[in-house]
Design a protein that fits this description.
Layout (H helix, E strand, L loop, with lengths): L1 E2 L2 E2 L1 E2 L9 E2 L2 E5 L8 E4 L3 E2 L29 E4 L13 E9 L4 E11 L2 E12 L1 H14 L8 E5 L2 H8 L8 H12 L4 E5 L7 H16 L6 E3 L3
Parallel strand pairs: 8-13, 9-12, 12-13
Antiparallel strand pairs: 1-2, 1-7, 3-5, 4-5, 5-6, 9-10, 10-11, 11-14
Helix pairs in contact: 1-3
Amino acid sequence: MILRGSRVLARCDESGALSAEGGRVEIRYDPKRGKAYQAAARNLEPAGEAIFPDDHCVAADRATPAAPGKRKKAKTASAGKSPPTTADGDEIVVYADGACSGNPGPAGLGVVVLSREGRRELSEYLGQGTNNIAELTAILRAAESVEDPSRPVRIYTDSNYAIGVLARGWKAKANVELVARTRDALARLEDVELFHVPGHAGVLLNERADDLAVLAVDHRASSGWREVVLS
């Protein structure tokens, strides 16, 4: 298959149909290495090549599951004076924001992702919800979008609530299932940090994420992930 311009091997059945669980498919960049990753099925495009048996790839490395109460937590830190507008090396930089008209009311999210591959944006309408649901789901979408969990991920948000329940040990009194899903998505990443930035304070890409969230609410529509070419 082709994943964002790179040729990969993807798990499929004998007919060539992708074997997806929760919309994600096991992929390999190198059949001689045990490193396996997960990719969204919608991001995989046929390359028109043969179907290989399982033993074409060496056995996948399997991480030992964390013991109860030992799940890896996202780290948190202060964003500092100048939140980044570019990503360095393998780093993935994310700005995630949510919007809600009425709270509860029509809700949406916006995500901006920067990496060596370029810039991607998401504007998604969530239907009826709260601002906290929108903020958490924006971070969830960001974490789910990372194809290679070994790359460092830096997520910037203006939600103290999201950082509290995801990285500071706050007990979730509402949105318990969504908080758990988001924690799990972050725990899949080997090096992830959450940074707080002030909302509506001129932080360029946080403002862009907010615009994308508001756009989803205003139009009651989702754009899906799209590549952004900057002139």
